[in-house]
Amino acid sequence: MSRIFLVDDHTIVRDGLRALLANEPDIEVVGEAGNGQELLDQLPTKPADVVLLDANMPVLDGLATTLRLRAEFPQVRVLILSMLAHERYIGQLFDAGAAGYVLKSAEKGEILVAIQTVIAGRHFLCSDLGLNMLRKVLAKNDEPEETAKASRLSRRESEVLQLLAEGLTTNEIAEKLFTSKRTIETHRQNILEKTQTKNTAALIRLAVTQGLLD
User: By C-alpha distance, which of 77, 124, 129, 86 is closest to 105?
Assistant: First the structure.
């Protein structure tokens, strides 16, 4: 029998999850909490195998709670159930020790699979999130090589490129940016290397075709 602890600041969500799990013969809901601190206060007397945890909560949110669980209750597996779909935040939660992440919009069947997967000691990411991340990776890989190269320019290099396109000389750019001629020459050389262009004329053509100029 796997022990599940439900943590969400909305009672209606906890009620729905409890109803969802009520007919699962191998799962027992051992407790509920409205935020991470309430969970941590109860765990010593209500031990759980898996915590089904909301990411966005008052007092102690999902990220802070996951970090505390890893430090104080390392045997507990964390499954995040949230509406937040930002990749960076999801990555932070996995880095903090979460074993799975499911959107609240997922089908009931997928939520059950997520719970079973986490109970089995594996990691889980819901299909909508996985497909969205895959699409972004594929779109990035399809980015034209010239655009990818140009996107690596620093803010200062982009400023120098803009001024070069406006016809300013190295001395004029140095005066405008309050720096030395040698520094501008270094920026110019770095821009040529990053964009793999041979001279300023080729560099300007690339900048125009890729829409890099104001």
Answer: 129
In terms of domains, do 28 and 91 share one? yes
Please state whether the predicted TM-score (pTM) of the whole model is above 0.70: no
Domain boundary among 102, 137, 172: 137
Whether residue 63 sits in one domain with residue 149: no
- Taking residue 22's Cβ as centre, other Cβ atoms within 10 Å add up to 9
At 213 the pLDDT is 64
Is the predicted pLDDT of residue 142 greater than 70, yes or no?
A: no
What pLDDT digit, counting tens, does each position of 155-200 carry? 888 888 888 888 888 888 888 888 888 888 888 888 888 777 777 7
DSSP for the chain reads -EEEEEE-S-HHHHHHHHHHHTT-TTEEEEEEESSHHHHHHHTTTS--SEEEE-SS-SSS-HHHHHHHHHHH-TTSEEEEEES---HHHHHHHHHHT--EEEETTS-HHHHHHHHHHHHTT--EE-HHHHHHHHHHHHHHHTS-HHHHHHTT--HHHHHHHHHHHTT--HHHHHHHTTS-HHHHHHHHHHHHHHHT-SSHHHHHHHHHHTT---
Give 206 or 23, the one with higher predicted confidence. Answer: 23
Task: Give the range of the structural domain holding residue 203, as residue numbers without chain letter.
Answer: 145-209
